[in-house]
Amino acid sequence: MEKFIQAAINEAQIGLKEGGIPIGSVLVHQNKIIGRGHNHRVQKGSAILHGEMDALENAGRQPASVYSECTLYTTLSPCSMCSGTILLYKIPKVVIGENHTFLGEEELLKERGVEVIVLDNEECKRLMKNFIEAKPELWNEDIGEK
What we know:
Elements: H1 2-17, E1 24-29, E2 32-38, H2 51-59, H3 64-67, E3 70-76, H4 80-88, E4 93-98, H5 106-111, E5 115-118, H6 122-134, H7 136-143
Parallel strand pairs: 3-4, 4-5
Antiparallel strand pairs: 1-2, 1-3
């Protein structure tokens, strides 16, 4: 589990270096990363490329049988859009780096049978804390605050 959350953290750090929001994710199937991504809202001017969405996009088209055996690792609790996609593709397990900065739709995921594990990872919390302090307007834009 540690190597996969570290891969998600590495993706978040890439996004930060690119001038974006430091949220990263990896999709794992049979102990192998099949998709990795990070938030691209700034870099690509995208309304939907959150870290989880980018990892799924980069995994490419997969059969339902693959998604049903995957674990999604993400540095931050998934928002409504990303949680909806997790449910749509019936991904059974989500491992979250931290949910103090933002509490997404974890309860919805649990209610729908998804196993949700929150690691409370210090590096994930530090990445977000430093980013929000440096660029609060960008963070507020990403989470829909005024």
